[in-house]
Design brief:
elongated, 54% helix
């Protein structure tokens, strides 16, 4: 999902403020494109999942000898 550049910049600034970090204007201009790509990757990871995306291995912890 593409984000508006202003929204990404505001979100980035908010996260840096929460972390207590100060980012120079030059560094911020360099980091914002990478942050935009990171947000797109996060959206892919958090996308909707179906039952087919569930792990193929399921572990069941039962006592030995129990049916």
């Amino acid at each position: 999902m593409p984000y508006a550049p202003e929204a990404l910049a505001a979100e980035f600034d908010m996260f840096m403020t929460r972390a207590g970090l100060t980012v120079s204007a030059e560094r911020r201009a360099q980091v914002l494109p990478a942050y935009a790509e990171l947000r797109e990757q996060v959206d892919l990871l958090r996308g909707p999942r179906t039952a087919a995306a569930e792990p193929s291995n399921v572990f069941r912890l039962t006592k030995l000898g129990a049916a």
